[in-house]
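Retry 2 of 3 after timeout on previous attempt. Resubmitting structure tokens to design endpoint.
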């Protein structure tokens, strides 16, 4: 009886694996076209970020990875943090990712299809102006 159960379980799982392989091919890896964003998406993200004051105060930098679905209209939905830093930066990354709208969705066999995308959003503190410190040093040296 146990051997029969093992054989049945193996047969069911091996058929599911075959079904999953077929569905992966149906999903279109590779796609004919990936979603297209008008312009430079990294530049759009950097211009849209409002660096949280608490992260500036704590001198926190890094990358947050946001995963989302690009629907057949080019809108992004289902935003989740794949890898985050801390809540204030993660929330800002989600806010910015929700602003993204693709001009055209992914295509498979000429039809619009859903597409998962993971976007790295970099938080980098602006560098301090070294030239102003250099000017002060020159004035002190002249005395």
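Retry 2 succeeded. Sequence:
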């Amino acid at each position: 009886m146990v051997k029969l159960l093992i054989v049945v379980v193996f047969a069911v799982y091996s058929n599911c694996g075959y079904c999953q392989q077929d569905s992966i091919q149906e999903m279109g890896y590779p796609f004919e076209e990936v979603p297209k964003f008008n312009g430079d998406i990294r530049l759009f993200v950097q211009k849209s970020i409002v660096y949280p004051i608490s992260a500036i105060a704590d001198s926190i930098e890094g990358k947050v990875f946001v995963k989302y679905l690009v629907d057949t209209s080019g809108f992004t939905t289902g935003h989740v943090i794949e890898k985050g830093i801390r809540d204030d930066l993660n929330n800002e990354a989600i806010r910015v990712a929700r602003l993204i709208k693709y001009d055209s969705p992914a295509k498979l066999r000429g039809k619009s299809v859903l597409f998962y995308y993971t976007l790295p959003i970099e938080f980098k503190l602006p560098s301090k102006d070294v030239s102003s410190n250099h000017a002060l040093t020159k004035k002190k040296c002249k005395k």
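Attempt log closed. Residues 1 and 7 are 10 Å apart (CA to CA).
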